[in-house]
Please model this.
Amino acid sequence: MPTKTKLVDQFSKPAGLTGRIMLWRMNWHHSRLTDWGLSHVAIPAAGAILDIGCGGGRTISKLAAAAPQCKVFGVDYAETSVAASSKFNARTIRSGQVSIQQASVSQLPFAENTFDLVTAVETHFFWPNLTGDIREVLRVVKPGGTVILIAEMYRGMPVIPAERVERAAGAIGMNLLTADEHRAVLADAGFRNVQIIEKRDKGWICAFGTKL
Ligand SMILES: C[S@@+](CC[C@H](N)C(=O)[O-])C[C@H]1O[C@@H](n2cnc3c(N)ncnc32)[C@H](O)[C@@H]1O
Model:
């Protein structure tokens, strides 16, 4: 049985058998949240899409299916996540539509102005330097392209008393932002037309903006 500390770390950096099981569970648990978030942005008909913190790989497979003419990339800094995502997307990797590699959001292995859409589901609250990391995302988004952050909890969400959310989030290393802080972090990094959508009955949030 993993220790409590190890289990706690599995959310931010899955590893080993426990990590693989958690990634499998997250693929199913985050599916509706992901569909809801993605419904707020246009999926490009052609071009390139990047999913950051791709975890078990289900978001990549949704994007690849929704945009068959797009090349879809995934990155994750955890080796176990890269392996799980690669297995989940084996067919589209073989066909050349999908490419997945190990990398941190802080140093994305892509040229500037590469992506039409960048997605990040249930991951940005773990990033080590959110403002700097969002600037790194901005660097790789094409002018006219979009970033979307999607999360199933945020500070001030109406579903559970705030203190309980903050305690639980803090325990697994999450830096929860309020809705206004989501707006500010995207705007401060340089994204424009920033919009925040809250699904208040669930406590979900998505924040998206455009690079001009
Ligand atoms: C809670 S999981 C979510 C996985 C997937 N996006 C989903 O919705 O199921 C968070 C993922 O983000 C990754 N991650 C956390 N910090 C990261 C960073 N700084 N750079 C890249 N990936 C990161 C973790 O390794 C993990 O796979």
Q: What stands out?
A: DSSP finds nine helices and seven strands in the chain. Residues 11-14, 26, 30, 52-56, 59, 76-78, 81, 104-105, 121-123, 126-128 surround S-adenosylmethionine (CB under 6 Å). Strands lie at 47-52, 70-76, 98-102, 115-121, 141-151, 192-199, 204-210. Confidence is low (pLDDT under 50) at residues 1-5.
